[in-house]
Structure formats: structure tokens, C-alpha cells
Amino acid sequence: MTDEGGSTFQAGQTGLIIRIPEAESAVRGWRERFDHSARAGIPAHVTVLYPFLDESRLDPAVHSALADVLGGHRAFTLRFERCGRFPEVSYLVPEPDTQVRQLTRAIADRWPEAPPYRGRFTEVVPHLTIAQGQEDAALKEIEADLTGRLPFTARVSSVELMVHDGTEWRERASFALGR
Question: What pLDDT, on the 0 to 100 scale, is given for residue 42?
Fold first, then answer.
């Protein structure tokens, strides 16, 4: 997850993520240095939807609706074999990304007032951010290091609701995908 300003999250912001613990040993050091979301408490992840609803709207009805929407999607496996790039950003590519896109679409359809990344992008590309705001040379160094640590797979069986408390991100709830 990234905010629009590149480094400042606001209290009450929320997001839905898929934790990728299998990536932590490979990416933790790079993320701690070059991804402000890692320093703010976000684990290695693929974003499903950010920002989601403001924390003040997270009532039992929203939790129930999230459980229903996410529970209607089967658990799946992602494979990470290569790095990708956005301008000044390096990331790991989850493949296939169809299921992640379906989760994003289902949540955005249910809560149209919360479009992914505030509607800034015409296409949302699932990814696991490693570094942001870096020059090409730094991104090449990161990618060279990670190439030797790939591939790996991750089983996705839940989506986590994260909330920023003004200082860091904390998991508020976990929603199981269907089996």
C-alpha cells in the first residue's frame, strides 16, 4: 500500500491486503530501507484495495459484508518468479494475478465509494512492492539480489484488514477465502 504523497499515512486510513510471509526473508531488508509502508508496519503483501473505508465506518455490518464477499472467492496460490517496475518502483510480480484482480473488483464493486488508489489508475496491477522513490541504479541492485532468491510460491487463504492508528498500521481483522 502506498499513500498519494509517498510517505505519510493518516490515522483512520484502512486497506485490504494479502500477506505474503514467504517473501519476508527475501525482501525484508530492502523493504525496510526503501519502502515506507514496511517501516509503518505493513508486512510483505499484495494490496487488494487501498484505501478502503475510513476506520469510522468499520462496523459489524461492514465486517459481515467483507466476510461474505471474500468468502465467495476460493483460496489460491501465487507464484513469484520475477521483478517488475513502475517509475521509481521495484516490485515482485504475482502470477497468475487473476484471482487478486477478482478480489479487488469484488470489493470495489461492493463499495464503489472506495475505488482502488482513489481511482488514480485506469488499470490496477497486482504487485508486492520492494522499493519506492529510488533511482534506476538502486532498483537494478535490488532486482539482481532478488533474482537469486526467486522463485517462491505463496498460498492465499485470507485477506487482512489493516488500519493506520496515526503511528503505524495494525491488523484489525482477517477474512477467510472459501475453500
Answer: 96
12 confidence band (pLDDT: 50, 70, 90)? very high
Separation CA 174–CA 176 (nearest Å)? 7
Q: What is the 3-state secondary structure (H, E, C) of the chain?
A: CCCCCCCCCCCCCEEEEEECHHHHHHHHHHHHHHCHHHHCCCCCEEEEECCCCCHHHCCHHHHHHHHHHHHCCECEEEEEEEEEEECCEEEEEEECCHHHHHHHHHHHHHCCCCCHHHHCCCCCCCCEEEEECCCHHHHHHHHHHHHCCCCEEEEECEEEEEEECCCCEEEEEEEECEC
- Rounded-to-integer distance, Cα 53 and Cα 58, Å: 7
For the segment 57-63, the average pLDDT, to the nearest whole number, is 98
CB of 170 closer than 8 Å to CB of 40: no
Asked if pLDDT for residue 151 goes beyond 80, the answer is yes
Half-sphere exposure of 168 (CA within 13 A, CB side): 8
Q: Give the model's pLDDT for residue 1.
A: 62
Q: Whats the size of the chain, residue-wise? A: 179
Pairwise CA distance, residues 146 & 142, whole Å: 6
Residue 28's pLDDT is: 96
Q: How far, in whole angstroms, is CA 16 from its chain's centroid?
A: 7
Closest CA to 46 of 7, 9, 2: 2
